[in-house]
Amino acid sequence: MKDAIAENWIVIKSSLEAISYFCVIVGIIVAYNSYSQERTEERKSNALQFIMHFQKDAMMKSRMELQRPWRNPALSSLSNKSGSADIFDDIAMKHIFPIDQKDTVSDLIRVMDYLDAAASCVASSDDNPGVCEKAVILDHLGEFADRLLCLYRAPIEELRTKYSMAKLGTKVEALLNNEPSFDRTCK
């Protein structure tokens, strides 16, 4: 009888040990999922803060100034036509330069720097998903950034080459180039 009790005790002890290991494993999985979910929510919150700043007065004024020359309905008929890229480049260059006579260059630099910062915020590595949620940033800023890079490609290139701003817009450009949902051909 003592042997039967001892045998049952060993089975019960082994079963309890197995159950406790299982509970530890489940606990680790639940904790990891909870942590991952919290990090995702934090990245979304960080992205939304970037977007909210993009809507504030100073940034909004810069964005509106950069969009002003493109509100002409006649320009939409030129889009996607042969030679239209040269016309758009000419309009953009006249809107930004000469620097000493216009403040629009400050608007362009301010907005491009901001978009680069947003791209840096979503930058990730193999072991780090980034500080901001990429999908949120791209959903809210991606199309605007893509159009701005196309419409102002000539002035941006001029600032990069002749005004020692080699990195201006490169981070957001790299981000958009890695996204199949953005056609970077500047039609």
Walk me through the structure.
- With 187 residues, the protein is an all-alpha fold.
- The protein has 8 helices and no strands.
- The protein is rod-shaped and about 100 Å long.
- The protein has a domain at 48-177.
- The model has no long low-confidence stretch (mean pLDDT 83).
Descriptive keywords:
rod-shaped; mainly alpha; 187 residues
Number of strands: 0
Oligomeric state of the chains present here: single chain
As residue ranges, the low-confidence spans are none
Structural class: mainly alpha
Could you provide a short overview of the structure?
This protein has 187 residues and is mainly α.
SSE order and pairing:
Blueprint lengths: L1 H53 L2 H11 L5 H6 L5 H13 L7 H19 L11 H18 L1 H10 L7 H8 L10
